[in-house]
């Protein structure tokens, strides 16, 4: 591998690092991490189990420790912070911005937080305490509280001089906010206008209309809104219209990634905190809860089957074909459930379009139900040569697939109204519904038609 390639390809990057660990070549490991940026270091650490990760910590450049801690998964951050004193954390957060300090202190206990607060610069401390005052799922918790804002009535030349003296612009700066004496947002000024317009003009002459977010807005709703409007940046105000921060494209990307990650984990019954290399006992515990819930639903389905024991004793073909009915309904429902949960996450479902969705899924379920009912019916007829069994499984497949599609819409909608994450329990409920409806329709029809 060429030296300039070894840090770019993710898989080769990990293989190269594993090779260094096998030696171990401490000088090469030091050089390896020196070449990486903060985000890349964080993702590399997340790619190893705890024991190896602890070893690799020793090779991270000391001046990057704080930024790396702010980037890694929360449970990794918590494991690292757990063994540190307040004075250790004070050194780590020195030089970090308010958002990064807030991330690091999120997992610290109250005593350490209080001690670290006292060591912070007054402005940073105020920003960090403000971020920690917000609930975890609102915009205020994710925003950057350090904005570039100037008072109305000043000249563009004065703004440029002020920015240069105080070194205010950075990679996150998108626009300059114009506020009144009470810090109420009046408008925004682009960096292009700041440079190209007459320097003796005042900022009021070139203020743009602005779109803002409320600091108490749900962060997932805010991310959907910014994506739909294709905004890379937006000011954040409180209920009185006072400027309290800004939400940047990097923040929106982080929110979107976290939301997608959480949805994927919830759909599989995995806790938010679990990652690839979470310790065995912690992973087993978090997954075991949902396995237990799923077991209860399986017993419910078994109970339904048990009510038709006489039919199963007399006709072996019913027992052979029974899983087909439940499986087809389960797949059909899961397809709909996935599409609907995605639509909810993107804020695409509201008002009249929900009714349209119900109608659409009803017809999709009936269309696919009819087609695959006929296919399964034909196969069962060739297999068993029994017209009554063919009729029963054809009707059962049609009924279960039609109702499964409707359930795939209805279940997440009801869960959302109850303020329960549809991704967390939707799949378990849907599986129960499709199993119970599938077995009930198949065995019930068999009892009525055949016996």
Automatic annotation (TrEMBL):
Instruction: Please give one Pfam family short name.
Output: MgtE_N
List the GO cellular component terms.
plasma membrane
State where it is primarily located: membrane
Does Membrane appear among the keywords? yes
InterPro entries under this entry? CBS_dom (IPR000644), CBS_dom_sf (IPR046342), Mg_transptr_MgtE_intracell_dom (IPR006668), MgtE_N_sf (IPR038076), MgtE_transporter (IPR006669), SLC41_membr_dom (IPR006667), SLC41_membr_dom_sf (IPR036739)
The source's superkingdom equals Bacteria
Q: Which GO terms describe its molecular function?
A: magnesium ion transmembrane transporter activity; metal ion binding
List the subcellular locations. Answer: Cell membrane; Membrane
Residues annotated as domain CBS: 206-262
Key words of the record: CBS domain, Cell membrane, Magnesium, Membrane, Metal-binding, Transmembrane, Transmembrane helix, Transport
| Record's keyword annotation contains rRNA processing | no
Q: Which residue ranges does UniProt annotate as crossing the membrane?
A: 289-308, 314-341, 362-383, 389-415, 427-450
Q: Give a short account of what the protein does.
A: Acts as a magnesium transporter.
Protein name per UniProt: Magnesium transporter MgtE
Species per Swiss-Prot/TrEMBL record? Vreelandella arcis
């Amino acid at each position: 591998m060429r030296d300039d390639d070894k840090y770019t390809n993710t898989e080769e990057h990990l293989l190269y690092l594993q090779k260094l660990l096998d030696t171990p070549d401490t000088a090469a490991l030091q050089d390896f991490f020196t070449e990486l940026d903060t985000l890349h270091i964080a993702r590399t650490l997340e790619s190893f189990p705890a024991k190896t990760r602890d070893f690799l910590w020793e090779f991270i450049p000391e001046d990057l420790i704080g930024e790396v801690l702010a980037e890694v998964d929360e449970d990794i951050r918590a494991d690292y912070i757990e063994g540190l004193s307040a004075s250790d954390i004070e050194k780590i957060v020195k030089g970090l911005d308010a958002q990064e300090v807030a991330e690091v202190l999120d997992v610290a206990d109250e005593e350490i937080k209080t001690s670290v607060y006292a060591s912070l610069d007054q402005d940073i401390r105020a920003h960090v305490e403000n971020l920690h005052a917000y609930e975890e799922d609102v915009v205020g918790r994710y925003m950057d509280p350090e904005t570039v804002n100037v008072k109305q009535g000043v000249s563009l030349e004065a703004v440029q001089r002020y920015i240069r003296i105080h070194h205010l612009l950075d990679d996150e700066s998108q626009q300059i906010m114009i506020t009144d004496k009470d810090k109420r947002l009046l408008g925004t000024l682009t960096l292009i206008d700041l440079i190209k317009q007459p320097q003796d003009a005042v900022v009021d002459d070139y203020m743009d209309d602005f779109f803002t977010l409320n600091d108490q807005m749900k962060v997932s709703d805010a991310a959907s809104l910014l994506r739909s409007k294709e905004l890379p940046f937006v000011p954040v105000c409180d209920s009185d219209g006072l400027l309290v921060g800004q939400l940047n494209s990097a923040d929106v990307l982080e929110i979107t990634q976290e939301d997608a990650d959480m949805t994927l984990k919830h759909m599989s019954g995995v806790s938010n905190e679990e990652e690839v290399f979470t310790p065995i006992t912690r992973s087993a515990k978090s997954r075991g809860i949902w396995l237990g819930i799923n077991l209860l639903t399986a017993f419910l389905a078994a109970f339904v089957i048990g009510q038709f024991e006489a039919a199963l004793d007399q006709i072996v073909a019913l027992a052979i074909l029974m899983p087909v009915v439940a499986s087809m309904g389960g797949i059909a429902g899961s397809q709909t459930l996935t599409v609907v949960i995605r639509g909810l996450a993107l804020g695409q479902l509201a008002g009249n379009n929900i009714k349209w969705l119900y109608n659409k899924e009803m017809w999709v379920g009936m269309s696919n139900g009819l087609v695959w009912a006929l296919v399964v019916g034909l196969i069962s007829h060739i297999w068993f040569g029994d017209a009554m069994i063919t009729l029963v499984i054809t009707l059962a497949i049609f009924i279960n697939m039609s109702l499964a599609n409707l359930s795939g819409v209805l279940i997440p909608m009801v869960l959302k109204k109850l303020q329960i994450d549809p991704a967390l329990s939707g799949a378990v409920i849907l599986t129960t519904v499709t199993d119970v409806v599938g077995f009930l329709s198949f065995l019930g029809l068999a009892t009525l038609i055949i016996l």
